Fold these 2 entries.
Entry 1:
Amino acid sequence: MTTIASGAPLLQVDALNVAYGKIEAVTGVNLKVGEGQIVTVIGPNGAGKTTLLSAIMGLLPATGAIGFAGAALNGTPIKDRIGQGLALVPETRALFSSMSVENNLELGAFRFHHRPARERQATMAEMYTLFPRLKERRTQRASTLSGGERQMLALARALMGKPRLLMLDEPSLGLAPLIVREVFRIISALRDSGVSILLVEQNARAALKVADYAYVLELGRVAAEGPAAELATDPRVIAAYLGMNSKHQERLAQ
Amino acid sequence: MNAQIALLLGQDGVINGAIYALLALSILLVFSVTRVLLIPLGEFVSFAALTMAAMQAGKPALLGFLLVALSLAGLVMDLIDATRGGARRLRIGMLAMPAYVGVVTALSLALPLKDLGMALQALMTIALVLPLGPLLYRVLFQPIAGASALVLLIVAIAAHVALVSVGLLIFGPEGARTEPFSDSVFMLGEAVIQSQTLWVIGLSLLLIVLLYLFFERNLYGKALRATAVDRLGAQLMGISPELAGKVSFGLAAFISGLSGVLIAPITTIYFDSGFVISLKGFVGAIIGGLASYPVAALGAVALGLVEAFSTFYASSYKEVIVFTLLLPVLLWRSLAQKGVEDEK
């Protein structure tokens, strides 16, 4: 695992097991995310990708070691993990649908609730420059947004909490091709601004294009790993996830 | 019936309706945040009324002992949770509730409450009833927060039965009524308006406005709403479900404590009177579809008016008429509903 080039690992997961009752969904997963890296986890449906993110966030009980920024996370409640700078945008987005865009954003900064309100306002202004569409829609209810706008809102809401590690579960799911490209553009822009990202994607080609390092998850185990550029040319990965002629996915990633 | 009687009944109806509306709002709030149908809400009302009456009769207010018992149980549960999660989860905050309960109980036993005047008595009563909410949540509902709505309902019913028994133990079987806030009466043309009516309506409106501001303007209020809208989303923002549960139960206890103080001079309250009162709040909440606050409040006021007028026309059928009112509402709602929502 010396292949991680930039910096000490921010997130280090060792021998992680997650079980739903007797059925093991994730078995013995080791994973690292370095500071300022995009790491992607790809794999087919049911491989345990979402389960993995939920366990790291503390939504599901897990055995094994989860270290974040040098501290062990095992057994800490979700609230404390968020306080340390973890954030998760789940596949469902989990927006506050009957509340306004602005309220959604404000609640994204709830972990700073003891700080003065003008700091939240300042972060919100940054989000509005990053996502001008949200500013236009700021008084609308979240339920009235389009799919792409919802994903933008979910991203912006997570960023309001100024996370050190942003975990994204299928951010391109159900979005039109042009929007997918926009989402990936934002993800790499976020990395450039210093946020580390753990990205779970079915759109493997686009994910490998944007990521620094990648893991392939199959049936709850890490089947392959390596720098994203290498995995993208690995014949097995091409055969299983990329396909020979699926150039359209690559076009989306540009 | 002449206009004067109609006006008198109208006043009665609006007073009761305002109190039902407050209860309907608490039920909605607690249900949407925690999925618990708070059946013991009525006990908060009757406990508040009976505590206030006990103070005015010069009897000791014994509600404090229940609080002490519950807060000790809560503290023990906190400690057990903390040892499971490692020593670093021991927090000084765990002692806040037992400390508050200790101070309030000591004050309620030591102060000469009978001579302190109505305002201080009411304040003390609400201070005693308020912690019942968070304590009940901590001891009964927090450990099973993830259980199905049916389990939560069964526990709520059990809590109601247990609290009624505790009520009998603390307050005895006699009913009680408190002195009105003021005896003065206004004449509005032909009509007689009691100042008690104005008190109830004024305080209810004030509380509704304050609640509105809390939920629309305040970050913590918004966080409670967010928990009601999307529990997962709220958790991911760092809004702890335990805190949201305790705050919503606390608000419900505060509102129903105030309702108890308001209703005590109007009706004779027994240890088990709370249930029927809160049941009418439920009807209001159901008219609002357990979702809409304004509709629930309006429904509850309408319910109060129907109740008052049916007392005049067919007093022995009062409750029958009031609860039969629910049937067309349920029928209409089930016809208007497009599909059955799956429970998560």
Note: The longest helix of chain A spans residues 177-192.
Entry 2:
Amino acid sequence: MTATPTFTINRRQILKLAAVFGATATLAACSGPSLGAGAGAASRAATDWTGIVPAKEITWWSNHPGTSKLIEQEIIKRFQAENPEITVTLVTAGANYDEIAQKFQAASGTNSVPDLVLASDVWWFRYMINGQVLPLDDLAKHLEFDTDDFNKTLYDDYTFTGNHWAIPYARSTPLFYYNKAVWAKAGLPDRAPKTWAEFDEWAPKIAADGGVTPLGLGKGASWAAWWFCNMLWGQGGAYSDEWTMTLDTPEAIAAADYLQSLIYERKVATVAAVDQVADFGAGLTGCIMGSTGSLTGILKAATFEVGTGFLPEGPEGQACPTGGTGVAIAADRTPEQQLAAGMFLKFLTNSENTAYFSSNTGYMPVRTSARDGETMTQVYAEFPQFRTAVDQLETTRSQDWGRVFVPNADKELTTALEKIMLQQTAPAEAFAVASTAIATSFDENVSPYL
Amino acid sequence: MRTIEDLQRDTDSAVAVAAPNGAVGAPLTPAPPRTFTPRRKKKPWKSWLLFLLFAGPNVALLIVFTYKPLLQSLYYSTLQWNLGSASAIPVGLGNYVAWFTDPGTARVVTVTLIFTVATVGGGMVIGLVFAVLLNRKLHGRGAARTIVVAPYVLSGVAVGLLWLFVFDPNFGITAALLDAIGVASPPWYNDPHWALVMVIIVYLWKNVGYVALIYLAALQSVPRDLLEAASLDGASPVRAFRNIVLPLLGPTTFFLSITTLLSSLQSFDIIQAMTRGGPLEGTTTMMYQIYQEGFQAGRAGYSSAVATILFAVLLVVTLIQMKYVEKRVHY
Amino acid sequence: MATPSLSTPTRRRKPLQLGGYLGLAVAIAIMILPLVWMFLAGFKERDEIYTVPIQWLPEAYDLSNYAAALAAVPFGSFFLNSTITTVIGAGLKLLLGLTTAYAVVFLEFPFKKFVFGLVIFALLVPQQIVMIPNFTLVASLGWINTYQGIIVPGLASAFGTFLFRQHFLTLPISILEAAALDGASHWTRLWRFIVPISAPTIAAVALVSIVSEWNEYLWPLLVVDRSDMMTLPVGLMLLQNNDGVTNWGVLMAGTVLVTVPVLIAFFALQKKIIAGLTAGGVTG
């Protein structure tokens, strides 16, 4: 028997091949992006919208926040009933905001760019500095969007250099959820703690009489650094002042110290392994800070009665960030397509559809008229928990640039917070690493394009 | 029986990668160079043209989708380029400097090393143990072999998701089993070290059957009489295994070390489905970093620099493996 | 650790045998338990999943989680897309491997060794290293969300070429000499003489290509962004984030839908698939 196969490539051949590549490496330089400073968003000439005929077909990329695919399809159906000459194609372009953003950035310069795209709080700014989205003010004026009716904080979240770059759509805030059965066992009043100081008083009772870990905390990207805004701002701190990181201030350190003490000194909080909402729903924790977008999901999942309340106040008062996603129009499309996209965007965010979307998902009604309208009033009557979320909206503020406008900033902050929560790293140390990294990323990825 | 290979063997002064199924004790004797086809010398260009027709499409695809992008990647690594942006700024070696000076790089390298060594080394050890077990004359070993290999054909994403639930520290089986013996579930998802252990376990679960299978085939080709001779000499089974079987498995081990190294370094699905590189970036390998920086952070230039570094390392490691084998494995 | 059965003396056989069975049982349990857990979870209601201590068996075997998974994402399209990309991708890859190996073994060419080296060296280039340029290229061709976009960049055959070449080198000369004397063209020689006697190797390579195409995740994730064009692994991940709350029941039902067809095919074709996997490592 003579079967001795040989893999006929040896080192010399590999080295030879490598040499060939090295020699021809320069050839590759003739493809890819053009060289030079960033094209920037502002350099685009304004379009005169009068006299433009809307395109017949537009595409909308969504991940259907809050399992809203059917709702979105219904709104499209209504739009096409009113505008039979425009066809809107709804595309599931990813499972979450990050995947949508990844696809949208990657598709830049190709013909697979959508007309409308979801632009979440941590992504719209990237789209803008890449020159991928259209400033909307002129178009909104031309189409009479009634922008004054939008919740001001939610609308102005998308402002930069005097322009709005997206329209609020599936907007959420963190909300305090508590297990009413546990509260009753612990003999607490049926409401959320007004302040963190009050929570501190209650926590031992929840642990002793309620028999559960009082507070469940969530980790992970796009999440930890979001709810932490509450503690941070409540102490009078912030991630950044415009582009300057301010995590070394005593206020920021105090906020992180407080968070750490909840876990390690007082042992009244635990960091969930996979999903803090699921743990809460299973009755493992007494209360959590969750997204308002999870409201319907939590009410469905929990086997006990769920109470909601404002996020607890810090020494410096109430502090709650906004979040979720808006919708933007791609810059890289014809004015006809952009006009049609604008028409659909106006329809999508009108008072009636805002209420329809909100009432079915649990996202915030982004228009004042929708918030106070009949549809929502009925929802509040059925789910008083929803009312809390909407009331809390009045106390929200836009997020710090140092988290949402710098690439990788959320990731760095998440890592810092995870170090603080999971490894008991000194806050000053963890924050210093994050601040340096974010400052570098700003210099590299943002400032050349401003 | 004369085969084409007998004719061509001499032309390859090369390293054997694949395990020789029956090569034991049959040392290579170089044959004089001969080629098969051109008995009747025809116009050579006709054969050339045919060669181009037959091999051309494959080579063209490789050039367009493997070699050209390899060079492009090298070029992109010298740019500060946001994916999605139409323009970029040349920064020379800036991305490389940035990677080597980044405080997080040490961690990424450590994670990559641990993951690679554990999955490649651990996989070979466990795979060999399985193979030895499966090579024994036991009832049901055929079925057992099939079951051990089954996870290898499953999608990495599906495997990751199902283990995500298995490892859930509250609702998963590992928690229940550990609880039964009075041990608390480790913080698989909250501790970067345990998370790394977790993804390694899952990777091994999925891939170890393949290693076992290859070793099993090699074991089955070990001639019985060789072992019987050893046994007559009074050698214990353990010694016979160490002194006779293991050396014979050398080429197989070498083959597996290269193939499992390549697939381990490319593994992405399981990490993406289970940890997305976290917590605390404790499961961010260089491969995951390339994806994360390139497509999530959109730093295409930086990502390309990391990719280039990884490729260079891979090349060097493979060359060392080959050099080592040239010296050590003789057959 | 159990020791191999190397002509063991009879008196030692019993305990060794027992140890062997124990080892085998442990190995099988480790491999099977997670799969069983997945199956059971697919039938469980929320409150049966989120209980401490865990509940092993579901109360009822109803399919509501499956219905929910099918309603949430278009599994039908995923299945179709996976099938199309796998069949076309693996088929063409096989063809390219056969013709390239044939050329390398049987045809004359001045830079033959270099060409073969070029093919084999590609095995050392991980996909992630070329993904950004390839993505840019595929996007500029307008191939995003198309089958060719999913298939073509990974089409070239390196490993298959290598295996076929190994196999061709072991073929008996007599057959090929007969074919050559017949005056058959190379194309005919390949299909009439070589392919039939190489059937086991071809089946082996084909099955391995099918498995890897079917499970491919990263590349389709990058080039597909509409759910109706997604393949099963990419589509499955949509379930993970579809609701505000992780719903293990639905997620596991979806995972079952992705894994079970493959498991069935594997158990049905296990002899061939195992032969195929083995051929990758052991030729001869």
Note: Confidence is low (pLDDT under 50) at residues 1-9, 21-31, 37-43 of chain A.
